[in-house]
């Protein structure tokens, strides 16, 4: 079965971001290996956009990818920003499953945490815990979790709906009508997924 993964996490925007952990071929290879025998098509928010000045269209592209993805895999190895939180909230609104890669004793997970005056064991950040279908240690395990999540689809279950919440509708419409036609990487991903837009 062919599945799609939206690669959520930091992208390198400039020189100051070079030290960040970001999605690369290494992470994608591990997810694909873990998801075997399923074929994984990756939806990458860091692909070049034709009109960087169209911020609504750029936001719409990310939200469109989250909407059509089989699952969102979040790189939470390090502290992440506003964009990742919005992507997770949008995925939850679309019904797109979320798998979070958060190694033990990293920013969003801890074996033991002193928190609000109490000791919490096996802590997972509340937003991560509430929104995620799975929280895993690494990208190989993210692929394995993806394979488990798509098992009902392979057996004929229904995929996530393409219903667009009102707070995302304008951005996705801007992307679909004014950007998508020239977005070569996204058009190629849609071809691979047999989802050519009409």
TrEMBL record:
The organism's place on the tree of life at top rank: Bacteria
Protein name: Nucleoside 2-deoxyribosyltransferase
């Amino acid at each position: 079965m062919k599945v799609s993964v939206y690669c959520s996490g930091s992208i390198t925007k400039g020189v100051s971001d070079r030290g960040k952990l970001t999605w690369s071929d290494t992470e994608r290879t591990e997810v694909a290996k873990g998801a075997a025998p399923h074929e994984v098509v990756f939806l990458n928010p860091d692909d070049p956009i034709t009109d960087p000045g169209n911020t609504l269209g750029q936001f719409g592209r990310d939200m469109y990818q989250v909407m059509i993805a089989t699952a969102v895999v979040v790189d939470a190895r390090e502290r992440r920003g506003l964009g990742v939180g919005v992507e997770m909230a949008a995925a939850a609104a679309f019904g797109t499953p979320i798998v979070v890669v958060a190694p033990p004793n990293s920013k969003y997970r801890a074996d033991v945490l002193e928190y609000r005056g109490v000791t919490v064991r096996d802590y997972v950040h509340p937003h991560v815990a509430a929104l995620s279908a799975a929280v895993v240690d690494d990208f190989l395990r993210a692929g394995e979790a993806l394979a488990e999540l798509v098992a009902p689809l392979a057996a004929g279950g229904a995929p996530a709906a393409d219903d667009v919440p009102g707070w995302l509708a304008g951005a996705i419409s801007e992307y679909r009508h004014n950007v998508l036609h020239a977005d070569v990487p996204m058009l190629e991903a849609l071809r691979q997924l047999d989802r050519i837009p009409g």
